[in-house]
Amino acid sequence: MMKMITAVIKPFKLDDVREALSGIGVQGITVSEVKGFGRQKGHTELYRGAEYVVDFLPKIRLEIAVEDTAVERTIEVLIKAAATGKIGDGKIFVHNLEQVIRIRTGESGPDAL
């Protein structure tokens, strides 16, 4: 079986995370620039003398498809590389991945990863 790991991290941690994942043999990730908030609830900024609340903070969303045997190691590496110890470090979600197909070759399942 396979899993899809979705991680939402702080943008400045992307290079550290990419290098760490590469170091354990993760061959591909999809990266999206997203906005969101959790317990952080955004923050207040001052613009032209007026204070306003920024509800959504910039984040990076990573999608990583791995075989079941690589899930725990991938999560460990993600946590170590993405953590700052401050609020807003992000979340990791693990989903079952039913099928993967490589468009170029038609390979499917773990061979397509």
In short:
By secondary structure, the chain is an alpha+beta fold.
Which features does this protein show?
elongated; 113 residues; two-stranded antiparallel ribbon; 4-stranded antiparallel β-sheet; Alpha-Beta Plaits; 39% strand; alpha+beta; 19% helix
| Residues in β-strands, percent | 35-45%
Q: How many individual helices?
A: 2
Q: Would you list the SSEs in sequence order as H and E?
A: EHEEEEHE
Class by helix and strand content?
alpha+beta
- CATH topology annotation: Alpha-Beta Plaits
Rounded mean pLDDT score: 91
CATH class: Alpha Beta
Describe this structure in words.
By secondary structure, the chain is an alpha+beta fold. The chain has a single domain (2-112), classed as Alpha-Beta Plaits (2-Layer Sandwich). Helix content is 19%, strand content 39%. A hairpin with a 2-residue loop joins strand 3 and strand 4. The protein starts with a strand and ends in a 16-residue tail after the last strand. 15% of the residues are buried.
Helix/strand layout:
Blueprint lengths: L1 E8 L4 H10 L6 E7 L6 E5 L2 E5 L2 E11 L3 H12 L7 E8 L16
Antiparallel strand pairs: 1-5, 1-6, 2-5, 3-4
Helix pairs in contact: 1-2
